[in-house]
Amino acid sequence: MTFSPVRAARTVRGAAMVAHADFWTIYTWRSWSFAWLVRLLCQVVFFALVGVLVGDPEYTAFIIVGAAMMVCVTETMLTSSSTCWERMQGRMPLITASPVEPVLLFFGRSVFWPVSAAVTTSVALLAVPPFFGDPWALWKVPFVIVLAALTALTTYCLALVVGALALSFTEVRNIASTVMTLYTTAFSGAMVPLDFWPPVLRWIAQALPVTHGLDAVRALQDGDLGAVAAASGLMLAVGAVWFVVATLAFRRVLARARRGRGGLD
Amino acid sequence: MTALLRAFGLGFGFQARELAVSTNAYFSLVSAPFFTITLLSMVTYSGRGDLASYAVVAPTLMTLWLAALMYAGEMISEDREGGRLELLVASPVSFPALLFGRLCGAMLLALPAFGLSILAAGLVMDAWITIHHPVLFVLTALAVTVSTAATAAAFSALFVLAPSARIVQNTLPMPVFVLSGVMVPITLFPGWLEAVGRLLYLSWGADLMRDALAPEAVEHAALRLLMVLALGALGLLIGGATIVRFLRRARSEGTLSQV
């Protein structure tokens, strides 16, 4: 089957319509703003207060950026669950039989998570620091929003790989996303600089898009736009690699299902 | 009273046995070591290794709360889906006492959560925690556990009466963790916010657990322990009364399986 951009766009668009419908079944504007967003902002404040506890304002500012970026990971990793909804709602036989590129379908199917994550992360990055006496300069605000969106997109590519794995083992869909989120929070340089950890953990962190997203946002804090561009480029490259891995993973899952070995009932 | 205790015992025993074979229960434990490592790395990095015990207490309480809300949300609805609710309500045992017993049984999760936090702190971060006031620590842990189950009973009543309140299940933990100072004592908050935090049993429990791990003498231990239990009992009273009212209405209207 040759690649057709039009067909690809149609696949993503169709799946995104399902995502849109799903999202507004889960949330209303009110519950998204006053429940979900508040919960995520409290998560940022929870970690930021540790900076207050240890009595170091500079470190508090460091934590706020890290915790705000973790909002992006927390939300995007929910892709693992929504990918499995296809199987749980009995649509896998139809997907397996359809001529679409599976990764495009699943990309569109959970796209509401990175879109929502881009908004919640931007709000967290922009709204929390002023309460701790460290607001952003106005000219940096558009960059913050773009970096939040790029981090959400690239982390989504990693989340799709987790989703592809969870598709074969649906019972671990929640635990897989939880572990990924907790691991990233601990070891991506969000809460303490990467230098704190042994070399092996530092190397693994390079494979997480958000590690480079964090570098980009911190470089923006320092006003170093060159470093922002470099870190963003790395983040996009890592995201692209994960997208390729997700493509292969979804193809493999569906190929196994066609041979009757995936149990995609 | 004997009947209430019997119902409590039945619920506790049933849930303890189910806990031993429940995969979901073990899944909820996974966050404890990760939170310990994250929080401990933060205090260690900033040169405050003296706060290591905070990083063990907080994940234990957080796991307890998350599990309590999970069980509060699932217990009655699973009974209903499994066709057990009608039988349980028709039986002569007290339903609220049975539910409270089950929630207390589920709270046995606190034990492995604390163990995992202690081990993660020791094995990964080389920060071995000493319990300087073991009797007080055990008493506080028990009081917090019972009060958490009591509060969860109130929430399960809310979830049955208003299924839309299930969003609370996802939303509530983080604001509660901040307000009750599971990691950062609420004495650091502005006065008005500290006053709000004092209304939560968890803030008294977190303070007392941290103090029980510290070498200094603990002030007003009995009074503070009593506050944990009193605030938990308040939750149980509200929850129990709500459940009894709901069951009476559902029975008289014949809507038990529909609500």
Number of domains of chain B: 1
How large is the count of helical segments of chain B? 13
Distance between the termini of chain A: 25 Å
Overall geometry of chain A: globular
Total strands of chain B: the figure is 0
Helix/strand-derived category of chain A reads: mainly alpha
- The percent of residues in helical segments of chain A reads over 70%
Q: What is the overall pLDDT average of chain B?
A: 88
Unreliable stretches of chain A (pLDDT < 50, length at least 5) are none
Share of β-strand residues of chain A: under 5%
Please report the number of helical segments of chain A.
Answer: 12
Which structural category do the helix and sheet elements of chain B fall into? mainly alpha
Beta strands of chain A, count: 0
- Helix/strand order of chain A, N-terminal first: HHHHHHHHHHHH
Q: Which percent range fits the helix content of chain B?
A: over 70%
Please explain how this structure is put together.
The complex is a heterodimer of chains A (265) and B (259). Chain A is an all-alpha fold. Chain A has one domain (5-258). Chain A is built from 12 helices and no strands. Chain A has helices at 5-26, 29-54, 57-76, 79-88, 92-97, 102-109, 112-131, 141-168, 173-187, 199-205, 209-221, 225-258. The two termini of chain A are 25 Å apart. Chain B has one domain (2-253). In chain B, helix 1 (2-21) runs parallel beside helix 6 (95-106), helix 3 (31-45) packs across helix 7 (110-124) and helix 4 runs antiparallel to helix 7. The longest helix of chain B is centred in the last third of the chain and has 33 residues, at 221-253. The model of chain B has no long low-confidence stretch (mean pLDDT 88). Chains A and B meet through helix 2 and helix 9 of A and helix 3, helix 9 and helix 10 of B. Chain B: Its main location: membrane.
